[in-house]
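Annotators were shown the component list below and the corresponding predicted structure, then asked to write short factual statements about the assembly.
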Amino acid sequence: MARTLAMFTDTSLCIGCRACQVACKQWNELGMEVPEWTGTYQNHTHFTDQTFRLVRFIEEPKPTGELAWLLMSDVCKHCAQAGCLEACPTGAIYRTQYGTVDINQDTCNGCRYCVSSCPFGVVAFNASSGTAKKCTFCNDRIHNGLGPACAKACPTESIQFGFRDELVARAQKRVETLKGMGFKEAQLYGADSNGFLGGLNAFFLLLARPGTYNLPDSPKLPQRNVVVDSLLSIGSAVLVGLGALLAFRERGQGGGDA
Amino acid sequence: MTTNLIDIQNSDVIMATSNMAENHPVGFQWVMKAKERGAKLIHVDPRFTRTSAAADMHVPLRSGTNIVFFGGMIKYAIDHNLHFKDYVVHYTNASFLIDPEFKTATDGGGLFAGYDAAKRAYDQKSWKYQLDAEGNPKRDLTLRDPNSVFQLMRRHYSRYTVEMVERVCGIPKEKFVAAAKLFCEASGPEKTGSITYALNLTQHTNGVENIRALCMLQLLLGNVGRPGGGVVALRGHANVQGATDLAVLYQDLPGYHPMPLRDAHPDLKTYLEKTTPKSGFVVNRPKWVVSMLKAWYGDRATKENDYGFDWIAKRASADAYSHQHIFVDMYNGKLKGFFAIGQNPAVGGPNAKLARAALEKLDWLVVQDIFLTETAEFWKAPASPPHREAAGTKNIKTEVFFLPAAPAAEKDGTLTNTMRLIQWHEKAVDPPGDVRSDAEHIYQLGKRLRTLYAGSKAKRDQGILALTWDYGDKHPDMLKVLVEMNGVAIEELRDKDGKVLYRKGEPLKTFADLRDDGTTTSGIWIYTGATVWDAEGKVVNRTASHKKGDEKDYLAHGWGWSWPANRRILYNRASANPAGKPWSEKKKFLWWDPEAPSNVPDKKGRWVGLDVPDFNAFLAPDAKGGDNPYIMRADGKGAFFGPLLDGPFPEHYEPVESPVKNLLSRQQMNPTAKIWKVGDKRNELAGVGSAEYPYVITTYRLTEHHLSGVMSRYLPMLAELFESHFAEISHELAKELGIANGDTITVMSPRGKIHAKAMVTNRFKPFTIDGKKIHQIGVPWHWGYNGVPGLPGSKGDITNDLSATVGDSNVFIQETKAFCCNVKKGVV
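Structure shown to annotators:
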């Protein structure tokens, strides 16, 4: 396997221009969606089969009482332990040679297990093709030696594309710099390969705790609950069965009276 | 701009007065780069925007009070001795003595000496330097003389105290002092700061003075001509710099020569005498103008016929042809036809309702654009009481022609961006169908006109017949056009020793070689050097060069070509001290190398460094004029005292429509501002402190949309980014009016009203002005009645229906950044 590629989104450099969101739509030929009123500049509200990059606008007062407008370009995380990939019964969702996660549109059967298995709400179902859709990491561009369209369009290098190990090293340095500049909550999200989901191949630098950005603090795969949940299910099934048997027994006895 | 966007990375502090992150996101990368290197970003803006989000400090000020802010900064810097004294003494006119008759606005109740109330204009006879016996300005290098520019400036701004800033701008005193300290302390040999501006400063009835105030602060702190310093003028779109260079303005000829006046300039000699100064680099104007006429009229331009000067249309008046003049005249029936190329005045200009009504009065209208704009379909405007019912074609006699135009990707040519950088681009795809480039439309129109006028003896037709109009058969060869702009040697040119400088037909390498004897051409002197010949006589297009910047050349002189002379930082003589040494190692840029070979054999000494010198590269620092960085000015010095029509120092006046009285003087508004009187109540104005229109409104643009929306509202992937047209209001105002986020509201001014959704946000806050709460709202102006089918939010009311037909004294720009409105819940 080739060296793992990654995208590092440094929200401290994001100016919310949404060039990434538009470039993504343009390159991937994604369609227009009638937006809904969000009360702020953000549109749309969540990832869909037509929106793979989404800039979030978060108005949040700083501890000093001054206003902060946190801007963050969100995307599929291309998890090392990917919920969608594990849930896929047909093998349509696969890991590319670069470490990213992609969906083979020809073998996807539209079962939507992946949709509910993504801890980040990234994967969406496309009704017309009957398949699941998400960020491809611009697989077609990567294979031709180009970075993803979003990273290419970003004017401030908030979205950086490259080899994962190099990006992580750069990101770690950047966190230290930011902390020195007074951004106490500056932190990396998903950079650690030993952390949650085995690390994210699209990882982030955040200026506040993950929850502020609508990201789970410690995302888990629904599959990891399978053993416990299955045992619980079996247990409850046994209990229900026993209850039913008992009920029949009582009814049977009553029948004798008729 | 005086500098280069790349160089912003060297700033120690950046003061954005415009919304740079949203409107110039690509250039903003260099601000972020500076921030990564530890620079501080101050954002001065009534609104909290995406620029504020990236800033270390957001300083909100009430719209229309910029001069109080800058004046307060100037006073703060002088009071705290933070100005860069050596720079101020040697490179500006601070030490020059002014006629004792001159009085500042501090002594004149808000007016300078010479105001004539009947004419609403100044007699500028006392606004001049004292001269010595030889005719040179008198100076006092100690800056102590009460008639020195420095002391007059100090006196003028003595009223601009931090308390006054708080009362007028609504900036709490502590916040202003913190910003002033942060910015003004980044001054002196070791530090520099830059200030960005855009339409936030220009679109006011004192727009030019706003910019002057900014420039004065930068001169005071020694922030011009030095790395990391500068006046960062951010132009509105990709080629607006190119458009002004090439004189798509009423008052200029290409290269910033004044457009001749009918009565004052009857012939070339008079024109050149009246417009050419006695000193400074502009003494060369005759060479530039004659070369321009030779480029236009070729062999037909001769010394005997004034090189065709008579063929140029002349202005009947300096107060007649701005955008606003045109639409008032059109409404009054004085204009019969109108050609709108890439412009959408039905949406984009001030008082847009007046503009649309004016279009109805035309005999013919040609619109050349990439989509069917509102201007091209002005009769489709929906009902907009009280002035019009839903239009319709019934009573409109205007004949409309639409010429579909190709955007940049479908044609060859250049764009000149905000940092004077000319970049060539090649056509990526052919335009569809019968769509043509603007150049082809104009070229073919010119050809047809010349056929129609052929043989005409009428004097008015001779200019069109005399034009050199030969750029190819169908589509003009744009490289040929660029070479004409650059200019060529008409015949073999030799220097005084007889050495051949240029072969016949060779493009000129520098405007220094232009001549006024008819042997050179140049369509625009500042572009000379953009094209050259290689050894074989083949044209090398330097605007197409693509060498990226590196450690040795961070300003990337090999990327495109920047006017003038591929110079990246203007006035760069100021980057060295008067002795020609860098002010500091850290801010080293250009310096005098006494050992370097000169241009004269057996002499030594030349300027060297990181850029092309913006002056004679062989002029020693101690030679006469060797310490004059501002070569375009007759005196060679940066101007604190600089006569404009509304005063030699910027003075605060309230916007024409304001909720408060002027606290600085009894002069409420700019006494020389242009106020048009338009019939049928089409330009009504709200009075000072009007109860009917109590709120300040500012209009602006968003990253996702472009200008009047022609390049964004028709594109689904851009148009979907905002749900609908909206107005931003504070929680405080929303509470007072019972408005919830997402409610439809009505915004009204004396000119019209619009409906939009209320975006209730913490990013707007009411101001406390002189102890009284004043609300300000903000409305983007991108929407109109055309857009993407199936995307209702791509269409919306026209914000410019609210703004007024009033203008700046010097250039007549509209006041759309600060006027008054009312807000009501629901559709009223």
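Statements collected:
1. Residues 5 and 27 of chain B are 6 Å apart (CA to CA).
2. The first strand of chain B starts at residue 13 and ends at 16.
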